[in-house]
Specification:
Blueprint (H helix, E strand, L loop, with lengths): L1 E5 L4 H12 L3 E6 L13 E4 L5 H10 L2 E6 L6 H6 L1 H21 L4 E7 L22 H20 L2 E7 L1 E3 L17 H9 L6 E4 L11 E2 L1 E3 H16 L5 E5 L5 E2 H12 L5 E4 L8 E2 L4 H7 L8 H14 L9 H9 L1
Bound molecules: uridine-5'-diphosphate.
GO biological process, one term: galactose catabolic process via UDP-galactose, Leloir pathway
Family: Belongs to the NAD(P)-dependent epimerase/dehydratase family.
Subunit structure: Homodimer.
Length: 340
């Protein structure tokens, strides 16, 4: 029996695939390779395709004996979601609809779904609990919330059980040195600051230093990608063992300001780089910190890499050794690395 990983060639998906390999699972990956990278997939059978493609999905479910789905496929750039909302509804909501139709048709009734802290919008309190108010401030968060609601009703009617994981700020890279974060365009704070340290960009900009936080910059809750991958294993195992559906925050309950993160990047890399204050980024809440108590209690999740310095060091190791990510031209290096 195999686990189908949708979006398994992406940053988080590739770490989930690596964790499944360690658990000796049979893995099938579908990724449309828009942002996914072939060399990030360390094992399993890879289908290059889109979730909106019914024929392809049907083929995958016919050719493989799928017992559970881990669904990480999504368009996930907040800014882009505001200018291309229809594209986000099509990719995220319609893609998931097609996936659920295929699961229903082929009697697959377990799904782990990647959601986001963006479903909360401006939180009503900190730390955020799962039942707190959800008013997304952007189309991206809205599409994820729509899917969460879809899962709820589909379970009622068709018995498809789900675990929803609401990610906070995922960072770091795998200890094996083979996979890490490689977005194009890159929009996330830690990799951007590391690019500035490497001289690949002129500076790093702080989006707003006039928030009512201790140093005026935004506070976020960072969580290591390997701890995130581990949560997916716990979730899929729970569903397979008859566990019930659930919705969980995935964060460390500790917040760091943008300025603290930048200082940590300087300290870890030992490199100086220019920092500029810029205006606030539209749609950014001042503070996002998770309460992860529920996933700790119910799924026994215990993050092992929660120190910011270790997370930055792990990201730094990846970027230092792969300054061009999985960029074309690296093929030989990849073949050598994955054979060793
Ligand atoms: N940020 C920043 N400069 C950058 C990129 C991000 O100041 O070049 C800030 C951003 O405003 C947010 C925090 O860093 O407060 C984390 O942003 P990121 O895009 O990494 O993740 P998000 O919180 O949007 O998921």
């Amino acid at each position: 029996m195999a686990i189908l990983v949708c979006g398994g060639a992406g940053y988080i998906g590739s770490h989930v695939v690596a964790a499944l390999i360690e658990q000796h699972e049979e893995i099938v990956v579908i990724d449309r390779m828009a942002v996914g990278r072939q060399y990030a997939v360390l094992g399993g059978k890879l289908y290059n395709g889109d979730l909106n493609d019914r024929v392809m999905l049907d083929k995958i479910f016919k050719e493989n004996e799928i017992e559970a789905v881990i669904h990480l496929s999504a368009s996930s750039l907040v800014g882009e979601s505001m200018t291309q909302p229809l594209e986000y509804y099509r990719n995220n909501v319609e893609g998931t609809l097609r996936l659920l139709e295929a699961m229903h048709k082929h009697c697959v009734d377990n799904i782990v779904f990647s959601s986001t802290a963006a479903v909360y919008g401006d939180p009503e309190r900190i730390p955020i609990r799962e039942d707190d108010r959800k008013i997304p401030r952007n189309t991206y968060g809205e599409t994820k919330l729509a899917i969460e609601r879809m899962l709820h009703w589909v379970e009622q009617a068709h018995g498809i059980k789900y675990v929803i994981l609401r990610y906070f700020n995922v960072a770091g890279a795998h200890d094996n040195g083979l996979i890490g974060e490689d977005h194009d365009p890159e929009t996330h704070l830690i990799p951007l600051a590391i690019q500035a340290a490497l001289g690949q960009r002129e500076n790093i900009m702080i989006f707003g230093d006039d928030y009512s936080t201790k140093d005026g910059s935004c506070i976020r809750d960072y969580v290591h990608v390997m701890d995130v991958a581990e949560a997916h294993l716990l979730a899929v195992n729970s569903l397979r063992n008859g566990g019930r559906s659930g919705v969980y925050n995935l964060g460390n309950s500790e917040g760091f300001t943008v300025k603290e993160v930048i200082e940590t990047v300087k300290k870890v890399t030992g490199l100086a780089f220019p920092v500029q204050i810029a205006s606030r980024r539209q749609g950014d809440p001042a503070v996002l910190i998770a309460s992860p108590e529920l996933i700790k209690d119910e799924l026994n999740w215990s993050p092992k890499r929660s120190s910011l310095e270790k997370m930055v060091a792990s990201a730094w190791e990846w970027h230092r050794t792969h300054p061009n990510g999985y960029a074309k031209g690296n093929e030989e290096t990849w073949q050598k690395e994955s054979q060793s």
